[in-house]
Design goal:
Strands 1, 2, 3, 4, 5, 6, 7 and 8 form an eight-stranded mixed sheet that branches. Strand 9 and strand 10 form a beta hairpin. The protein is 52% helix and 15% strand. Helix 7 packs antiparallel against helix 8 and helix 9 packs antiparallel against helix 11. It is of the alpha+beta class. The protein is globular. Bound molecules: flavin-adenine dinucleotide. Flavin-adenine dinucleotide binds next to strand 1, strand 3, helix 10 and helix 11.
Length: 396
């Protein structure tokens, strides 16, 4: 499968590079330092009409995963939080598209795609992250809907969200769950509370909060998919399809770290010469760029496979390889960039340690890199049915 960027995509990339440099970069340090939600960046993304980008023309999008990857790459080159706003909008959209009924799609999708509504997605619980089957939140069948009890953690954007998609095990009349379903829980629903945000070393500006569900009544109309695992499975599959997005963010982050490192070594002197003239430094920079370009090629290919309709094991493996490789590259490149700054790399006066802290987040979210390696190995070894080896939640 091959790919090439169309002339529209190249023009789109140029436009975003300019916007990122002129309007996003000047805000990036402040968002990181204050850890405050960047309302102005949300408005900017709305103005650029990016919330619908990967979705069909019906919602104002391009239907192209490659275009979505180009956008997040350019934005992540200068700022972590701004493209995260896009991801926070895209994940619930993908879930609703995969498992929502016509009424739910009509109720939420157009307003999510326009930026009128915001949402969040919640799987992770105190005792289970990678192992989704370990969730304990219970949705018990009652007349007209469900009563939900449980606790979630790390739900990003929940403090801003108009609704949260919450995963719970469904019980009918026995102690055995009939499966996992996602439920649309709208803000201000009685019994539903969003707790105080985590104080995070990275991914700052976007709050990740615990959720408390105390006998929350959710009507049947807010259950995604039929009762049981079917809807949840299609949501998980559709979110896995979106995995090139996080890989593109990693490529953008790595390229941004290189941008800063290049600027620094060109202006720094030691032993009577410019630091960028030391061969050891030049080779470090060359390795950083080689690794980043290799990751970029994987991301563009992975995204193009999706645009060309690939599915199944070939795609799952490619997406897992691309996520693990690109985020490991981002971590390595950001670490080397801090090294090139010397002591300045540790100082908060310089932006480079922001890249280093955020690179670590990318290796953990949307299925940790160990889980990605399990997927790759399972596919190689033909062991895809072993749940403890593959259970990778692509939670944002
Ligand atoms: C910034 C941020 C935002 C997040 N936002 C959200 C969100 O919006 N919604 C949401 O639901 N969750 C969210 N999460 C949670 C995230 O999805 C989980 O942290 C992730 O799935 C890992 O789960 P865990 O932290 O419980 O680690 P665990 O699953 O407890 O894993 C601990 C360690 O064991 C390793 N491990 C686990 N199982 C295996 C295995 N089978 N083989 C090899 N190694 C294994 C892991 O890779 C990891 O290194 C967020 C996390 C962060 C950091």
């Amino acid at each position: 499968m091959t790919y090439s960027l169309t002339s529209e995509q190249i023009a789109f990339q140029d436009m975003l590079r300019r916007v990122a440099r002129e309007r996003v970069a000047p805000r990036a340090n402040e968002i990181d330092r204050t850890d405050e939600y960047p309302h102005d960046m949300f408005e900017l993304l709305k103005e650029l009409d990016l919330f619908a980008l990967p979705f069909s023309e019906e919602f104002g999008g391009t239907g192209s995963m490659l275009s979505a990857c180009l956008a997040v790459e350019e934005l992540n080159r200068v700022c972590y939080a701004t493209p995260y706003l896009l991801v926070m909008q895209w994940v619930p959209c993908e879930a609703l598209q995969a498992a929502g009924n016509e009424e739910q799609k009509k109720r939420f999708l157009p307003r999510l795609c326009s930026g009128e509504l915001r949402a969040a997605f919640s799987l992770t619980e105190p005792q289970s992250g990678s192992d989704v089957s370990g969730i304990k939140t219970r949705a018990v069948r009652v007349d007209g809907g469900y009563r939900i009890n449980g606790a979630k953690i790390w739900c990003t954007n929940s403090n801003m969200a108009d609704f949260v998609l919450v995963a719970a095990k469904v019980y009918r009349d026995s102690d055995q769950p009939v499966g996992i379903n996602l439920f649309i829980i709208e803000k201000n629903t009685p019994g539903f509370t969003v707790g105080p945000k985590e104080d995070k070393m990275g991914a700052r500006g976007m709050a990740s909060c615990p959720l408390f569900l105390d006998d929350v009544f959710v009507p049947d109309a807010n259950r995604l998919g039929p009762e049981g695992n079917e809807g949840f499975k299609s949501v998980m599959e559709s979110l896995a399809l979106g995995r090139p997005i996080i890989s593109a963010r990693a490529v953008g982050l790595a390229q941004g770290a290189i941008d800063h490192a290049v600027e620094f070594v060109k202006s720094r002197f030691a032993f009577g010469q410019n630091v960028s003239d030391f061969q050891g430094i030049r080779w470090m920079l060359a390795d950083m760029q080689m690794q980043t370009e290799a990751a970029r090629q994987m991301v563009y290919r992975n995204a193009s496979m999706i645009d060309q309709g690939a599915s199944g094991l070939e795609l799952a493996s490619m997406s897992a390889m691309t996520k693990a490789f690109s985020t490991d590259v981002a971590m390595k490149v950001a670490t080397d960039a801090v090294q090139l700054f010397g002591a300045a790399g540790i100082s908060n006066e310089y932006p480079i340690n922001r890249y280093f802290r955020n690179a670590k987040v990318l290796q953990i979210v949307e299925g940790t890199n160990q889980i990605q390696r399990n997927i790759i190995a399972d596919n190689l070894l033909g062991r895809t049915s072993r749940k403890n080896r593959t259970g990778a939640p692509p939670a944002p």
